[in-house]
Amino acid sequence: MPEAFEKCVERGGKVRRKRIDKNHWMNFCIPPGGGKGDSVAGELHTYKKATKKKIYKVNRKLPYFGEADEEKKQVTVNPKKGEVVNTVIHEEEHLEHPKMREKNIRKKAVTREKKMPIRKQIKLLQKLL
User: Fold this and answer.
1) Rounded Cα–Cα distance for residues 33 and 20 (Å)
2) How far apart are CA 32 and CA 11, in angstroms?
3) CA–CA separation, 26 and 30 (whole Å)
4) Position 66 pLDDT exceeds 90
5) What was the pLDDT predicted at 76?
6) Where do the structural domains in the chain lie, given as residue ranges?
């Protein structure tokens, strides 16, 4: 970081973040007792790239309801087992929260399914086609 920015922070200045464009932001330090015109710029930062898009697959030979592959961001569902909407939501939860307990994921999937309108459920099922 630039020295002036570091000194401003050390003196107790307020750090503010300013979005430059869609992919970049910059930290600014406003010195104690100073206004916006007195701010000192820091380094330019880049937002993390978008996460990989989820892939939805159907596997009728799967011995269980579904599975989630975190590395491939892939949800695989066995429609023969039933409860397809709940299974897709459940496996999406595994991808979003890999360290969450199974018990909590089950509860969250059920509540999400109950709150989800029919149209969203249809869109979710269309992802499997």
Assistant:
1) 25
2) 8
3) 13
4) yes
5) 95
6) 3-46, 55-126
